[in-house]
From TrEMBL:
Any one Pfam family match given in the protein's UniProt record, by short name: Trans_reg_C
Swiss-Prot/TrEMBL GO biological process terms: phosphorelay signal transduction system; regulation of DNA-templated transcription
GO molecular function annotations of the record: DNA binding
The protein's name: OmpR/PhoB-type domain-containing protein
Domain of life: Bacteria
Amino acid sequence: MVINKHFTINASRNEVLDNRTEKSVRLEPWLMKLLCLLIENHGEIVERSFIIKQLWNDYPGAGEGLNQAISGLRKLLEDDQKKIIETLPKTGYCFHGIIEDIPIKHQARSLKATYIMAGILTVIAILFLVRYYQSTEASISDRLSRKEARDISKIDSIHQAERLKAPKNRK
């Protein structure tokens, strides 16, 4: 999804990409959960107590952690005027960013790169198997050639010995 045509959110990778600078920031999983929780409730008040229960399991010191998390998200989203994430004092927060649900560009690139890498590895594996098969064939034929050479040598030796032993015909 894209916020204000400026930030691409990839929740599965915990990444926020600034589309203008092409810089990507990886968030802590709980911080991404907070951002997604606010986005899911776009335009509605999300109470502090609900956020604390969902993300911090009612941990006693979570209020200060929530304040810091909201501050970090505002900095990340360049929300100095507090218009994207509105604070409702002592109540909660309301997300007002413009959200577009469009495919993530850099995720598509990485998927394409994955297919290219898989293709290259497949070609390498095939070349390796062909080379292995050729070397095995050559090895077998080399062994057969050596065996045939030994057999021929033995036969020649036998014939030569028989010639030596055989009486010579004199005419």
